[in-house]
Amino acid sequence: MYSKIDFIFAFFTVVSVLLQGYCLQYFLGSFLEGRTKSCFHGLFVTAAYGLSRLCIYWLPPTGYESVKTIWKTVLSLCILLVIAMCFYKAFRAVTLFLVAAFRAIADISAFVVLILLDKPVDKLLTVWNLCMERGIITSEKIFETAVNASVIGNQIFRETALVLLLYLSLKGIVRNYREKDYAIHRTELLSILTPAMVSLLLCALLRTILFTVEENAVETVYDQYPLLLAILPAILLLSLLSILYGVKLFQDTVYLNRERSNRIVLEKQIGSMQEHMAEMERIYSGIRSMKHDMKNTLSVVLRLAAEKGETRFLLCCGLPLKRGKVKIKSYKPTCRK
Prior knowledge:
- The chain is 76% helix and 2% strand.
- Strand 1 and strand 2 form a beta hairpin.
- The longest helix has 90 residues, at 228-317.
- The chain starts with a helix and ends in a 20-residue tail after the last helix.
- It has helices spanning 4-29, 41-57, 69-87, 94-133, 140-176, 186-209, 221-224, 228-317; strands spanning 211-214, 217-220.
- The chain has 337 residues and is mainly α.
- It has a two-stranded antiparallel ribbon.
């Protein structure tokens, strides 16, 4: 029989999964075009992811103790790819990155929250046991209520932190991935897909070794090695940062390559303009020399025409012609006596 606390855990698990589905439709919708323009498109994606995720979650094995849990990761990746293909026009290379990145970030968020909040809850339960032993809490009902409230509060806080970390990480990728219509090449795809795949393998490794069962008691790996309580979250957060900064570095490279291409085109245009200006300068120089020659020729022609016109005037008047500059004397008429 299931207790009330089990139903509360199941309820918050369902809510958390549905919120993760909302993050998925936001993430995919930022890169891919939906197959329909319906206002319920996001709800369908959220419901499909939530249903599939809950089925995987309750499939055996339900814990982290078996190596078979890696098949859950593979199955979840396949389901995410099917959802992307069914609800979006996802025949693009970037779809592989979107699926792997979402699954990796979701797993990293879950493990970070689990590791960081596991010990505080144990300490809080230890405090309630001490209070019960020392008589501070005298009623078993109060003790049970305090324990259940602590466990439920931890569950609520854990699921809230998981969804919040997942959403903020996906939002960071959407913000940094500016060139969403850019046709990504195979080498570029591998450069951003590799950190996500490494993170997935790291989470699969943690699923295998994090929990062990000894003498019918579940123990964690950091119970034996307390230093891992700080190292494991640090490694997981660094894996998350590698995904985020890998995307940012890829987009910066695309932007720099585009700027370099634009600069080369501008340099070629400037070179052709300079050649055109030099050619026009040669043409204008030829025109100026031609104008100068024509001006000189015209001045000579005008001078010759003027000299020829003056000669005709002298001949008509019966005056003598002199070489060089012609001087015309004034003519005074004589009076007859």
